[in-house]
Design a protein that fits this description.
By secondary structure, the chain is mainly alpha-helical. The chain is 90% helix and 0% strand. It has 6 helices and no strands. It starts with a helix and ends with a helix.
Amino acid sequence: MSEFYRLLWHKTKRTQLLLIGLSLSIAVLAAVPLYFQQTLINGLAYGGTSLHQVLVLGTQYAAAALLAITLKLYLQYRSAMLGETIVRHIRGRILANHSHKRRADDPSRAADGTVVSMLTAEAESVGLFVGEAVTTPVLELGTFLSILVFITASEPLLGLFIVAVAVPQAMIVVAAQRPVNALVKQRLEFLRTAADRTVDAASP
């Protein structure tokens, strides 16, 4: 997996840097609406906030939320574009390599059914993964930390409670990742075998 991430970073570094920047910006903005909500509620509950101040805070809250939504849409668009680009690149390389080995009658070439599976389901999955492999963890972890820092600064005990709940969940996810990877590998092998049998059955 580490080799895959190194190759991914080497091939898509410039786009990934843009996506990471967008993810971090969205993560930071995640705590901004909470600040405006807290200020509005405290001001209305305990007094001392005029109608003008309420309107200003409401406008700032709406602007922050609109900016976050816009950045999320752009992030999704660029991630999808990167994923589709990788899918086309993978399919082109697989098809060119298989065609070359087939013309050379190379015995090491993959079976036609395996290539069909690689061109369809596997290339699509890899492309989608590449588009989200870096940005999704950065966005989710950054958003969690942003909100956690804000909550801890306001209510330290509540922040500690959130950490106490989140840490065991993270440990479970990490522990479950290896069995999940094994199941994914079995699924790919099954699809390749099924595709090979289908192609062989259809051959004259």
